[in-house]
Amino acid sequence: MRERPTGATATIGRTGFPAIRSRTGGTLNIMTGANQAGFNPLDLLYASLSACLAMSARYAASRMGVLDRLTTIEVTVTGEKAQAGPARVETFDIAFVIGGDIDEETRQAIVRAAEDEICTVSNTILGNPQFRTAISA
User: Fold this and answer.
1) Per-residue pLDDT reduced to its tens digit, 56-108
2) Are 11 and 18 in contact (CB under 8 A)?
3) Are 67 and 99 in contact (CB under 8 A)?
4) I want to staple 20 with a disulfide (CB 3.0 to 4.6 A). Which of 7, 28, 70, 111 is the partner?
5) According to DSSP H, which parts of 85-135 are helical?
6) Is the pLDDT of residue 37 over 90?
7) pTM assigned to the model
8) What domains can you pick out in the chain, each with its CATH number?
9) CA-wise closest residue to 51 among 94, 1, 8
10) Which residues cross the membrane (predicted)?
11) Cβ(48)–Cβ(39) under 8 Å?
């Protein structure tokens, strides 16, 4: 299986907002104003988690043999920032809506598999990843 290159580069000048470029050439402009449409860095964190969980839930449904009964998966992620200490999200609020002819027990199993086994983003957030930082001029 061929692996997709991953990673992103943010570029910002003395003024303005960051421009993001993925290793595959995708681009995204960051907006931080309260009334500006678009994504800010925290939105991107929530977006990464919601997308990963949605795709992981679909994969879990496939593994469980219920994909043909699934119509949609919607995952909404928001969060609560910590009041003290370093700036961070203290609590992630995750809401799954799994549409289709699937019973509650199977829905629960799909979500557990997505969150605890399959989704790289949720597993990374729940872990304690190390940072390797390089600095240059």
Assistant:
1) 999 999 999 999 999 999 999 999 999 999 999 999 999 999 999 999 999 99
2) yes
3) no
4) 28
5) 104-113, 120-126
6) no
7) 0.91
8) 7-36 (no CATH), 40-126 (3.30.300.20)
9) 94
10) none
11) no
